[in-house]
Write a structure and sequence with these properties.
With 203 residues, this protein is of the alpha+beta class. The protein contains 3 helices and 9 strands, in the order αβββββββαβαβ. The longest helix has 16 residues.
């Protein structure tokens, strides 16, 4: 296993619509292992293949110490709506509020190519939506209103780059993850302007 560099906003690979995984060979298994290692080293809750420069419809997610590998995923059902805190390893130093479905059903293939369905809610559902966005060439900052209200988590100078990037774009097993905070926490819970989840927490 190896930790791979994570691409950041501005890299064109992040804006490509990823190709379907057609063969689940040794190279895909190596990629999956590297992605898990990279996600954990970041650290993050998830990581999509385009974030490590590979434009394939493949992502890994780890919630409650359980790793989920999804290949060629498709969201087939969405239920409810809320606005959790969200950040991204490819948009370091910022976080915002994104409208997400509270529950989703996803059909996908596992790392061996076997079909499965996954019903998810809470953090797992949020991470699935976030990673599938990556596979469609979309970042969380592309969702309506997000880029105008980004909050910093560390002193970085990426706001202009993020805004320019966003301006150029338009738009069953049952498992649960911890639900991200819907409303700002009390002042003594976390530092000012700091979400319960770090900006790198999703992927």
């Amino acid at each position: 296993m190896a930790v791979r560099p994570i691409l950041v906003v501005g890299n064109p690979v992040l804006r490509q619509k990823a190709r379907k995984v057609s063969q689940f060979d040794r190279s895909i298994q190596k990629l999956v292992e590297d992605m898990i290692e990279t996600m954990r080293a970041a650290p993050g809750v998830g990581l999509a293949a385009p974030q490590v420069g590979v434009p394939l419809r493949l992502a890994v997610i780890e919630v409650d110490e359980e790793v989920t590998v999804i290949a060629n995923p498709e969201i087939v059902k969405r239920t409810g709506e809320y606005e959790p805190d969200e950040g991204c390893l490819s948009v370091p130093g910022f976080w915002g509020h994104v409208t997400r479905a509270e529950k989703v059903t996803v059909k996908a293939k596992d790392r061996t190519g076997k079909d499965f369905r996954l019903n998810a809610e809470g953090l797992l559902a949020q991470a699935l939506q976030h990673e599938i966005d990556h596979l469609d060439g979309m970042l969380y900052i592309d969702h309506p209103g997000v880029v105008d209200e980004l909050k910093r988590t560390e002193p970085v100078r990426r706001r202009e780059a993020v805004q320019e990037e966003a301006a150029g774009n338009g738009e069953p097993r049952v498992r649960q993850g911890r639900r991200p905070r819907r409303t700002p926490p009390p002042p003594d819970a976390v530092p000012a302007d700091e979400p319960e989840l770090s900006p790198e927490a999703i992927g």
